[in-house]
Amino acid sequence: MILLRSLTDWWGPKRLRSLFDLGFAVYGLLTVLLVAVFITTGLTPLAFAKSFSVLLFIIGSALAADGVLGLRTRIDKTYGRLRLERGALALAAAKLVAGTVAILLLGLGLRL
C-alpha cells in the first residue's frame, strides 16, 4: 500500500490507496494506448504480443508488491474495501501468487 498524502496527514488506513489500484489504472490506460497504436499503425502481431507482455510487468509487479506488503501489515484495501487480519492475509497471498504468474508470463512473452 502506498500513501496518497504525506505522512503528516496520516488519518489511518482508510486514507491508503493500494498499489494494485494504481497499477491497474496505469495498466488500463497503457493497454488502450497500445491497442490504438496497433490499429492505426503497421505494428506486427508479434510486436503487439511482446508489448502486451511488457505491460504485464506493471500489473504483476503491483500485485506482487501489494501482496508482500499485505502479508507484512495484515491490512488490505482493494477496490475501496478495507480488510484486516485473516481476510487481508488470504487476499495478499493470492495477489502474490497472481503477481508471480504475471511476471512469469512476461518472461514467456519476451521469448516469442
Low-confidence stretches: 1-7
Distance between the termini: 33 Å
**What does the main sheet amount to?**
2 strands, antiparallel
Class by alpha and beta content = mainly alpha
**Rg:** 16 Å
Helix content: 55-70%
Q: Count the DSSP helices.
A: 3
Query: Could you tell me the strand content as a percent range?
Result: 5-15%
Shape estimate: elongated
Strand order of the largest sheet: 1-2
Number of strands: 4
Provide the residue-averaged pLDDT: 79
Along the chain, the helix and strand elements come as EEHHEEH
What key phrases describe this protein's structure?
disordered N terminus; mainly alpha; 112 residues; two-stranded antiparallel sheet; two-stranded antiparallel ribbon; 68% helix
SSE diagram, text form:
Elements: E1 2-3, E2 16-17, H1 19-40, H2 45-73, E3 75-78, E4 81-84, H3 86-110
Antiparallel strand pairs: 1-2, 3-4
Helix pairs in contact: 1-2, 2-3
Structure notes:
The chain has 112 residues and is mainly alpha-helical. The protein has helices at 19-40, 45-73, 86-110, and strands at 2-3, 16-17, 75-78, 81-84. The strands form two sheets. It has a two-stranded antiparallel sheet. It has a two-stranded antiparallel sheet with strand order 3-4. A hairpin with a 2-residue loop joins strand 3 and strand 4 (81-84). Helix 1 packs antiparallel against helix 2 (45-73) and helix 2 packs antiparallel against helix 3. The chain is elongated and about 50 Å long. The N and C termini lie far apart (33 Å). Mean pLDDT is 79; it is low at 1-7.
Compact summary:
The protein has 112 residues and is mainly alpha-helical. The protein has helices at 19-40, 45-73, 86-110, and strands at 2-3, 16-17, 75-78, 81-84. It is built from 3 helices and 4 strands.
